[in-house]
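thread: overnight batch results

M.L. [08:02]
morning all. the overnight job finished for the chain we discussed friday. pasting input first so we're all looking at the same thing
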Amino acid sequence: EWITMKSYKEAVKKVIFDGSFHFIKLAQNKVNNNFFIFDELKNPNCRFIERAQLFNKLNFHSIIRPIDIIKPETENDFGIIILPFTLNGNLDSLIQNISIEYTNKCIILYGIAMGMLKLHDQDIAHKNLFPSNILINNEFEPWISGFIIPYSQAYYDISYVSPEVLSLNSNKKVNFDERFSDIYSFGMIAYYLFTG
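M.L. [08:03]
and the structure it wrote out:
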């Protein structure tokens, strides 16, 4: 293993995102100086093993694939998924910082749609689809990231979630297909991408 739970802290450069259930940290491999991303869970309830298995199950070009997985070594460790670093960042930062050509907008939307189709064909709802969770790789193609584990407590970005989800009582079981909320989120992303 090129990195372990004990040595990962030395590789971390900065925290990019501090979310409800995980951190996203920029790190650097000291062997070859390549940058990469740590997706570090915040607590054991985030179900690390299921999260890792989900990543490995989704073998599709527009769904991000892990470079490696650091399993928890003690009960105080929560596990880390190592992901590739993208120079273009996420879709939100891209929209804010550059003018995206129409063709590239269509390529991005098509990639997101095909990735979501792959997820939904396996009865998986993303549940957290918004521009910051769409990474843009060096070929200007989208990588869908930021999945919420199926059947776990969801942490939604309310700007991109359907009204049905927002009206749910947190104590009640979800009684509708959450994949429909993903479709709503996709529509909101498309609107944001073309109106920016």
